[in-house]
């Protein structure tokens, strides 16, 4: 059933492409609007080449700071806040794509999280999705800078998310490597985001049916399509047809087998990744260390405040004493006269 849908989808695509490639007159020439479009893109790209090459900026390059958008960053958030942000963020994203009939699917670590229990991996610092390049270009043309108002299904959480599309989406190879992320879905309260990357057939002449992102993750058409409809974080989502192969290619078979990872253990009863006792102990220790440090700081501030008060009091007393002595002296001089 699925395979026949796939075959039909591919047949349609082929038909569409071949009809595009053979215009009614002057074979192999481009339409004026296509040429104008291309020139506009080239000009846009040239202008970009001369300015700042990187579009998305992060407050730092390490694995933590590299996952915040610099414009909206106000400090690293707690695990609880990240979990809350990411689970609403992906629901909003999937709803937006669904409402606008745009195709997208979950990828990388997010796909791995789905594989285990249909949820994000609790330690994941960002979320990843993919789109086909046609969808990406449509996002750039029509939906760039959308601010999506989100209301959770229970009505308890309202948020706003920004869709920001990188102007470098027209360049489909890696280039200087500074713009491999094509778009972001950003929580503007704290700067956390979903990385959106587009896939293109970058070598349709020599490698047809091979899809690649700008970071050269490669997929065959048949690995991706037809997409499977599923649930992720409680909302309708899509995953690539051959998700097992894609995950093993990227993370090796261990990622689907090993049940202790990144300070978490897979609990078969709960079907959840839970923090190991070791992680919990470490967190308790870290929290206590911070508390002690904060108390010391507070005590130091208090000590300095008291010292300042003492100094002022003493200065006041000294001044009083001097005043008295001056008066006495003046009195003595008056007596002498
Ligand atoms: C959010 O949804 C709830 C019901 O699901 C509704 O009562 C509430 O008015 C909505 N809030 C906004 C801001 O749309
Ligand atoms: C999206 O909007 C931003 C802000 O206006 C702009 O800098 C960027 O070039 C736009 N992206 C595309 C693909 O046009
Ligand atoms: C899994 O979670 C359940 C419920 O919290 C708990 O009773 C059980 O001991 C856990 N299993 C493991 C292996 O930690």
Describe this structure in words.
It is built from 8 helices and 13 strands. The chain is an alpha+beta fold and 337 residues long. Among the domains are: 65-252, Beta Polymerase, domain 2 (2-Layer Sandwich), CATH 3.30.460; 259-301. A hairpin with a 4-residue loop joins strand 12 (264-267) and strand 13. Helix 4 packs across helix 7. The longest helix has 60 residues, at 277-336. It is elongated, with a radius of gyration of 31 Å. The termini are far apart. The protein binds 2-acetamido-2-deoxy-beta-D-glucopyranose (3 copies). The site of one 2-acetamido-2-deoxy-beta-D-glucopyranose has 3 residues, from loops. This is LicD/FKTN/FKRP nucleotidyltransferase domain-containing protein.
Q: State the share of residues found in helices, binned by percent.
A: 40-55%
Order of helices and strands: HHHEHEHEEEEEEHEEHEEEH
CATH architecture of the domain at 65-252: 2-Layer Sandwich
- Biggest sheet layout: 6 strands, mixed
Bound compounds: 2-acetamido-2-deoxy-beta-D-glucopyranose
**Count of DSSP strands:** 13
With strands numbered from the N-terminus, the spatial order across the biggest sheet is 1-2-6-5-4-3
Structural class: alpha+beta
Main CATH class of the domain at 65-252: Alpha Beta
Roughly how many Å apart are the termini? 123 Å
Number of helices: 8
- What fold name goes in the CATH topology slot of the domain at 65-252? Beta Polymerase, domain 2
Mean pLDDT: 87
Unreliable stretches: 1-28
Rg over CA atoms, rounded to whole Å, is: 31 Å
- The share of residues in extended strands comes to 15-25%
Sum up the overall morphology in one term: elongated
InterPro entries: FKTN/MNN4/W02B3.4-1, LicD/FKTN/FKRP_NTP_transf
Keywords: Membrane, Signal, Transmembrane, Transmembrane helix
Signal peptide: 1-21
GO cellular component, one term: membrane
């Amino acid at each position: 059933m699925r395979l026949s849908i796939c075959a039909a989808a591919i047949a349609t695509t082929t038909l569409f492409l071949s009809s595009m490639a053979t215009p009614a007159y002057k074979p192999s020439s481009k339409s004026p609007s296509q040429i104008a479009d291309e020139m506009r893109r080239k000009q846009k790209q040239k202008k970009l080449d001369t300015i700042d090459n990187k579009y998305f900026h992060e407050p730092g390059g390490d694995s933590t700071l590299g996952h915040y958008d610099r414009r909206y960053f106000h400090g690293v958030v707690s695990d609880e806040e990240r979990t809350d942000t990411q689970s609403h963020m992906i629901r909003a994203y999937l709803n937006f794509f669904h409402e606008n009939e745009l195709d997208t699917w979950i990828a990388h670590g997010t796909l791995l999280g789905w594989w285990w229990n249909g949820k994000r991996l609790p330690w994941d610092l960002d979320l990843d999705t993919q789109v086909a390049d046609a969808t990406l270009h449509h996002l750039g043309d029509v939906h760039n800078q959308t601010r999506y108002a989100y209301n959770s299904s229970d009505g308890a959480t309202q948020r706003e998310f920004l869709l920001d599309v990188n102007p470098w989406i027209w360049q489909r190879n890696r280039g200087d490597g500074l713009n491999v992320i094509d778009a972001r879905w950003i929580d503007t309260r704290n700067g956390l985001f979903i990385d959106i990357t587009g896939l293109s057939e970058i070598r349709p002449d020599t490698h047809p049916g091979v899809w690649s992102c700008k970071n050269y993750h490669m997929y065959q058409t048949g690995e991706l399509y037809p997409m499977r409809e599923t649930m992720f974080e409680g909302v309708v989502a899509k995953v690539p047809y051959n998700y097992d192969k894609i995950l093993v290619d990227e993370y090796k078979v261990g990622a689907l087998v090993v049940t202790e990872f990144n300070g978490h253990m897979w609990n078969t009863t709960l079907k959840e990744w839970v923090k190991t006792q070791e992680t919990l102990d470490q967190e308790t220790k870290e929290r206590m260390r911070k508390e002690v440090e904060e108390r010391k700081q507070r005590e130091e501030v208090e000590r300095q405040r008291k010292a300042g008060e003492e100094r002022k009091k003493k200065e006041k007393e000294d001044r009083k004493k001097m005043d008295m002595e001056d008066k006495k002296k003046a009195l003595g001089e008056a007596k002498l006269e």
